[in-house]
Amino acid sequence: ADYAEAARRWGRIPAIRTAGQGYRDASMYWIGRTHEQRGDAEGALELYEQLGHAVGIARIADFRARLHTSRGEYAAAEPLYRRALELRRAAGDRAGVANAEIELGALYQAQHDFDRALAQYQRGVMLLDELGERRSLSYALLRLANVHNARGEFGAALDAARAMAAVMNVASAPEPPNE
Length: 179
Hints:
This protein is mostly helical. Helices cover 79% and strands 0% of the residues. Helix 2 runs antiparallel to helix 3 (41-51), helix 6 (94-110) packs antiparallel against helix 7 and helix 7 (114-131) packs antiparallel against helix 8 (134-150).
């Protein structure tokens, strides 16, 4: 089936009712996700804004910000990253907040603003560690190690790399057998 047919079908399927969302809103959300997966940020954003779906709007802001960052358009990227961060905070999406902090750190790192990058990464690392988000934490620690290295702080870079390795070992360790 093509995209138009898939979107039409999503609109007809009764969605699982979630707290505070009727079938129509849940269907609109999934149509928005379909737009998002097809790369149609505008179509997804329109639906998310109709629904007031902060996390969906934040995902689109992140997507646009990463696009601007990849083009070196840092001034255009920063307000989008900040919007995503605030939307995630307002929605209570703590893992999303942590990842938004990391995205801002990456933006500052790309601009060689290592002081601001370091501050963003440290906030993200603390929150990811608190949440137990091991895989995201290992990535954030790698970014942190890179910033320390760029600043000539080789001991701190090595400490962050060691912490990353320890997190990766825990994250990839097999579960012990039940006895």
